[in-house]
Amino acid sequence: MLNFIIERFHLPINLDHRRDRIALYAALSVPISLLMAATKLLLGMVFLSSWLLIFGVYYTVLLAVKVLALWRYHRIRVSDSPVMAKIQAEQAFLTLGGLGYCLIGVTFGIFCYVMYRHGYSQQFNLNAALVIAMIGFTKLTAAIIGLVRSRHLLSPLITLLKAYSVADGMTAMVLTQYALLTYQHSASVSTTTGLFGMAISVAVILVGLWITLFATHRDLTQEETEESSCNKY
User: How far apart are CA 224 and CA 21, in angstroms?
Assistant: First the structure.
């Protein structure tokens, strides 16, 4: 299936390279993310729900920064530059990528502040709460594992894409908490979830600042020299 997509659209991707496979899987998830964002925005406008509108904006921002990172990865991948020049070009993008990460945190923080101040009336039964919890823990666990493993690929943009997935998984845990608390009929569900979500958003912003200020200057020269003897970029 992946080979058909590559041949059909003449993509400069080699499935033998794990970096390219990760980028392709991320690209294939874009239509689904776009549909989710558009659905939430549409329902928010129809039902005049600030909660759905802000959540829709959040997914739109997350999708935009992921697409921008994928576009930059593609441009660097097809260039004829030397290996180290490609890695340096990817690192240079981390400044903008980190700011995008901060924007994700700010957007989600606004969403959680609205929940904290105005509440949100949505009840989940036991089955729905368990499904949401399973999805949330699965997304976060898979994202963290992918992020840790991507550090050995010497591709800052792939690591950045995995970091975006971690941010998405962290925010999914906020919805998990909300679902579990509503099932237990907690009186302070919106307040508690809103505060927890704002704490998560602060953590995301701090990670974005770390990416912008420190990850950009990580020295990959020695690591790439050791890796190049075994793998090709």
Answer: 19
pTM (two decimals): 0.77
For the chain, count helices (H), then strands (E).
9, 0
- Look at residues 160, 153, 61 and name the one whose alpha carbon lies nearest to residue 110: 61
Give the single-character DSSP code of 17: S
Backbone angles phi, psi at 164, to 5 degrees: -60, -40
* Residue 196 neighbours by CB distance under 10 Å: 18
Burial class (CB in 10 A: 0-12, 13-18, 19+), 112: buried
Q: What is the pLDDT of residue 206?
A: 94
Give the amino acid at 127. N
Burial of 188 per CB tally in 10 Å (0-12, 13-18, 19+): exposed
**Closest of 27, 1, 3 to residue 16, by C-alpha:** 3
SS3 183: helix
DSSP structural state of residue 153:
G
DSSP 47-63: TT-HHHHHHHHHHHHHH
Q: What distance in Å separates the CA atoms of residue 154 and residue 220, rounded to the nearest whole number?
A: 7
- CA-derived radius of gyration, the chain: 19
Find the helix packing angle between 30-46 and 18-28, rounded to 10°.
30
Structure tokens at 156: 């800052």
Residue 12 to residue 137: CA distance in whole angstroms? 34
**Residue 11 pLDDT class (50, 70, 90 cuts):** low
